[in-house]
Amino acid sequence: MTAPLLTEIDHVAIAVRDLEAAIAYYGDTFGATVAHRERIDSDGVEEALLKVADSYIQLLTPTSETSPVARYLEKNGEGIHHVGYRVDDCAAALRSVAEHGGRMIDQAPRPGSRGTTVAFVHPKGAFGTLIELVQE
Asked: Which residues does 59 contact at the CB level (< 8 Å), separation at least 6?
């Protein structure tokens, strides 16, 4: 039997229009604090990561009107955007997606936030869920 490629949930990403308001809500309501904050210009987003046990809530807001998160907010409104799964080898996990007929957004792993390596799997090949593979 082959070892599982997904090792744990890295984060649940929530698209928001007002990052400061979302941070305040999670802080005031749940006592959550920002563990990491970063602007990712290549994806057109700013993120705030709130630590929950060994995982994160990733609050995302667009930094440009053309970013995928801006388009998501326009079409769907605020809410869960994607789920990030930790993997030991992002390239191997991406190959497995391709070998099993999945649709990929990223054809190869690329740099992500926090110094990670990431790749996205298209929701049309993953039962309606946008998946991010995250290698620390």
From this structure: 13, 14, 16, 19, 22, 23, 26, 47, 48, 49, 50
